[in-house]
Amino acid sequence: MPNIYNSILFITLSKLVIMNEELIKIIISAAIVLVVYPLSRFIVYKLTDKFAKFKLYDYGYCKMIKKILNALIIIVIITILIGIWGVDRKNILLALSSGFAVIGVALFAQWSILSNVTAGLVIFFSLQLRIGDRIKIYDKDFPIEATLKDIKAFYLCLETDKGEIISYPNNLLLQKGIFICT
Fold first, then answer.
1. How many of the other CB atoms lie within 10 Å of CB of 134?
2. Within 10 Å of residue 84's Cβ, how many Cβ atoms?
3. Residue of 139, 158, 136 whose CA lies nearest to 147
4. How far is CA 170 from CA 9, 123, 156, in A?
5. Whether 141 contacts 176, CB under 8 Å
């Protein structure tokens, strides 16, 4: 009889240990979702606002950058949660590769839009352009000298001396030589 009680006690204790491990995973997951995500989002938003204020960027452009950075934060947190939950990596890779194949086929015709958004991020974070700067774009077919009015997700708004408003794609700006006059 004592052996039966010992085995029942052992099974019960092992179930408690497994339940405690699951409880710890749930607590860590909840802490990440409830604490880390809002905190990292707050920090990224403040840094983006400060950077945009320094560079004199438009509010709409900052809003777009914040959405993209928020999506990146969510992707990182989901990756961390998947690691905590112990999901098999092979299954994740299979699902991701299938999803990316479908997205790749769907967006193949939209590559120029994606390149404009990516170029917009590069312009926002690395180029020394500010709203109101006078710039020259060295293009052999259509050289432009204009004042930068706004930076959007897909294009720049430029105003020439004649008052013409030009929408110039972000990806072309990175491909051409530019000179910042101001």
1. 14
2. 14
3. 158
4. 68, 8, 6
5. no
C-alpha 22/C-alpha 181 separation (Å) is 61
Residue 61 near residue 150, CB atoms below 8 Å: yes
Rg (Cα) of the chain, in Å, rounded? 26
Locate the domains of the chain by residue range: 2-87
Q: Which two tokens stand for residue 146?
A: 């204009």
Tens of pLDDT, residue by residue over 55-74, are 766 666 778 788 888 888 88
Q: Is 49 helix (H, G, I), strand (E, B) or coil?
A: helix
Is 52 strand, coil or helix?
Answer: helix
User: 7: which 2 tokens?
Assistant: 């085995």
Q: Which residues pair with 155 in a beta bridge?
A: 169
> Do residues 125 and 47 make contact, with C-beta atoms less than 8 angstroms apart?
no
Tokens of 159: 């105003």
- Sheet-wide strand order for 134-138: 165-169, 155-159, 144-151, 134-138, 177-180
- According to DSSP, the residues that pair with 158 across neighbouring strands are 148, 166
Tens digit of each residue's pLDDT (9 = 90 or more) over 32-56: 777 888 898 999 889 888 888 877 6
User: What burial letters (b/e) apply to 95-109, b meaning 16+ CB within 10 Å?
Assistant: eeeeeeeeeeeeeee
pTM: 0.49
In angstroms, the CA 137 to CA 119 distance is: 16
